[in-house]
Amino acid sequence: MTDAVQYINGHWLAGEGEPFASLDPAKNEEIWHGAAAGPEQVEAAIAAARRAAPDWAGRPVDARLAIAKRYAELLNEHKDALARTIARETGKPQWETLTEVAAMVGKVGISEKAYFERTGTVENPMPGARAYVRHKPHGVVAVFGPYNFPGHLPNGHIVPALIAGNTVVFKPSELTPLVAQEMVRLWEQAGLPAGVLNLVQGEVATGKALAAHPGIDGLFFTGSSRTGNLLHSQFSCQPGKILALEMGGNNPLVVTRVEEVDAAVHTIIQSAFITSGQRCTCARRLLLPQGEAGDRILARLIEVTKAIRVGRYDADPQPFMGSMISEKAAKAMVAAQAHLLALGGESLLMLKHLQAGTGLVSPGIIEVSAIRDLPDEEYFGPLLQVIRYTELPAALDIANRTRYGLSAGLLSDSQDDWDYFFRHIRAGIVNWNKPITGASSAAPFGGIGDSGNHRASAYYAADYCAYPVASVEDDRVTMPASLSPGLQF
Ligand SMILES: NC(=O)C1=CN([C@@H]2O[C@H](COP(=O)(O)OP(=O)(O)OC[C@H]3O[C@@H](n4cnc5c(N)ncnc54)[C@H](O)[C@@H]3O)[C@@H](O)[C@H]2O)C=CC1
Ligand SMILES: O=C(O)CCC(=O)N[C@@H](CCC(=O)O)C(=O)O
């Protein structure tokens, strides 16, 4: 293991700040340690990005794309190793981390298409002149990543930012420094010039130093609503800086009439328990109709969920659910469940911490219909809250009872129910008879309310990576055909 964990101006350096470590949460083993970037190193990273900016932005987009494409090739060549690192550092099963790396590879082609489609150059007809819309990069942008997709989600900011001509200072989650390091090494190998992408590792102090620095032109954040809200207030009265926030959700999944009970249960499980419930798009609240049809789905859901295989990321056969990110996160889910039980919830399947020292938990299902003031919290783990409803309008009223608005779904065989649901639900990702996780990178990705600040990511990330410039141009200055009233020449 090397001490050189910071990448600043093309050099790998030891951190000058507080030491911290990264654990394999399934095996309770340290897999990485290093020292955080100190404030002067954060400063140096921003200065390096600033120096590199004019040359990088001044290159033709094809030159920037050539490096991004080489990076995608390298990702593909190293996909097994990177997927294994993601699995070790997050606890996610290897079948799933391979899909994460595949999404990272695919991001380059999608971002290229989005760049030209959403932020390319357009010439509009105009009598006696030429009118253009072009786009320019913001300059130096900070990228903050979460732990749940430590490769794919920061990659979803970094790739379009670099293609658009920005330079980047990347602050990954302190829980996943090793993934960040491997990712940045691939950019380095791809031939990215010094200073274009800088890596500052560290805990909250490093994040604060970067976010508060006057030298950044923007900040692209994926993480919790709590941190996103802090950043939003920190950025107030700085209208010149671009802030893109992708945050959490308290996502509802509503079921009405369905013929195929097993298909509905499968979709519920994919929505609620994939990644051990650690996706911002995961279903947190399942709304089932009262009566026999709802009872049948619930009984089957409990039966199948009980049988979900939970285990280590490298187990053979593979588990559906791996470890949560940490023992602390597992304990927080046990505490969240206890809180809901104390408020009047009824456990239908207990979420259990399976092994001390690890983040391994079993999935839980809790009936919360009787809780009068159900907390509008994102419990970021595999605990599904069940609410029984009478009529679809009442279900929609409950579904929209949240300050968030990221993803939502309907399971129903009825076109009318879907039309009603789509019209009334408030969320940025709204699916019918499909899981509400697994959003496509080829579509915009973002939510309303406390889930974001109307800067959708994925396909629309191109929009926050560049600003539009409108120009009217002619080769020579000429007199107009007619003068404005009151002017004489
Ligand atoms: N909408 C979306 O696209 C997604 C949202 N998320 C959300 O992310 C959360 C899980 O990720 P976490 O890593 O726990 O998020 P987090 O908010 O704790 O951390 C995200 C990043 O912000 C940094 N940070 C934390 N406090 C800071 C502060 N005061 N100032 C500056 N930087 C600070 C962290 O070091 C990390 O790099 C969940 O709430 C989940 O819903 C996760 C994935 C996707
Ligand atoms: O950003 C993209 O390219 C698409 C969005 C995406 O991949 N969403 C995933 C992850 C969401 C999360 O982080 O929690 C999904 O919808 O499952």
Automatic annotation (TrEMBL):
Could you tell me which InterPro entries the record lists for this protein? Answer: Ald_DH/histidinol_DH, Ald_DH_C, Ald_DH_CS_CYS, Ald_DH_CS_GLU, Ald_DH_N, Aldehyde_DH_dom, Aldehyde_DH_Superfamily, SuccinylGlu_semiald_DH_AstD
Q: What is this protein called?
A: N-succinylglutamate 5-semialdehyde dehydrogenase
Where is NAD(+) annotated to bind? 223-228
Range of residues in the leader sequence: none
Specify the pathway. Amino-acid degradation; L-arginine degradation via AST pathway; L-glutamate and succinate from L-arginine: step 4/5
Q: Which molecular function terms from Gene Ontology are attached?
A: succinylglutamate-semialdehyde dehydrogenase activity
Functional note? Catalyzes the NAD-dependent reduction of succinylglutamate semialdehyde into succinylglutamate.
Keywords, sorted A to Z:
Arginine metabolism, NAD, Oxidoreductase
The cross-references to PROSITE patterns, in alphabetical order and at most eight, read: ALDEHYDE_DEHYDR_CYS, ALDEHYDE_DEHYDR_GLU
This enzyme catalyses:
N-succinyl-L-glutamate 5-semialdehyde + NAD(+) + H2O = N-succinyl-L-glutamate + NADH + 2 H(+)
Determine the domain of life of the protein's source: Bacteria
- Domain Aldehyde dehydrogenase span(s) in chain numbering: 12-463
GO biological process terms on file: L-arginine catabolic process to L-glutamate; L-arginine catabolic process to succinate
What is the name of the gene encoding this protein?
A: astD
Record family assignment = Belongs to the aldehyde dehydrogenase family. AstD subfamily.
Please name the catalytic residues of this protein: 246, 280
Q: Where does this protein come from, organism-wise?
A: Zobellella taiwanensis
- Spell out the Pfam families in the cross-references: Aldedh
